[in-house]
C-alpha cells in the first residue's frame, strides 16, 4: 500500500499519520510519504495494491502536489484502487464531508475523471495564530463569507478523529480486498 499526503499547515500530515497508525493496528504497515519531498514514479504508483492520498485544500484548490499526484494517477493505464481524502475547513459543516457535498472534492473528482474506491472530505484545523499575516487575513475573509470564526486568536480542531479512524478501517478493508497479487 502507498499512503501519500500534501500538506500546507501540517493537518493533512497528521491525518495521514493517524491513518498509518490505525492501519498498523490492523496489521498493515505503511509509512506516509510527503509528496513535496517524495513523489512517486508512474511505475511505483501502478504497482501499488492500493493508493491513498490525503491532500489539503488551500484557497479553494487542492495543493499543487496533490493535483500533480491525481494527474499522474489519472494517466496510468491500469491504476490501482484509490482512496482520496480531502482535508479542508469547508468539511466542518454538515453535509460537506462527502464527495457529493464538498465542492472541492467534487471538482477534483470531475477534473481528473476519478471514481475512487473511497472519497471523503475531512474537516481541517483552524489555527489563526500560526498563519502568516496575509494567510490570516485571507482565511478570515473566507470565514466571514462562510459564517465561521474570525477572531485572529482562534484555534479550533475541527478534525473528527473518529471519522479518520473509520476511514482507516475502510482503507484497510480496501487493501485486504485488493488481493496479494500486487506489491
Structural class category = alpha/beta
Largest β sheet strand count, sense and barrel closure:
6 strands, mixed
Computed over alpha carbons, the radius of gyration is 16 Å
Q: What's the total helix number?
A: 6
**H/E element string?**
EHEHEEHEHEEHEH
Write the layout of secondary structure elements.
Layout: E1 2-6, H1 11-25, E2 33-34, H2 42-46, E3 51-58, E4 61-62, H3 64-75, E5 82-88, H4 103-111, E6 118-123, E7 125-127, H5 133-145, E8 155-157, H6 161-177
Parallel strand pairs: 1-2, 1-3, 3-5, 5-6
Antiparallel strand pairs: 3-4, 7-8
Structural write-up:
- By secondary structure, this protein is α/β, with parallel strands linked by helices.
- It folds into 2 domains: 2-124 and 160-177, Rossmann fold (3-Layer(aba) Sandwich); 128-158, no CATH class.
- Helix content is 39%, strand content 20%.
- It has 6 helices and 8 strands.
- Strands 1, 2, 3, 4, 5 and 6 form a 6-stranded mixed β-sheet that branches.
- Strand 5 (82-88), helix 4 (103-111) and strand 6 form a beta-alpha-beta unit.
- The N and C termini lie close together (7 Å).
- The model has no long low-confidence stretch (mean pLDDT 94).
Summarize the structure.
The chain has about 180 residues and is of the alpha/beta class. It has helices at about 10-25, 40-45, 65-75, 105-110, 135-145, 160-175, and strands spanning about 1-5, 35, 50-60, 60, 80-90, 120-125, 125, 155.
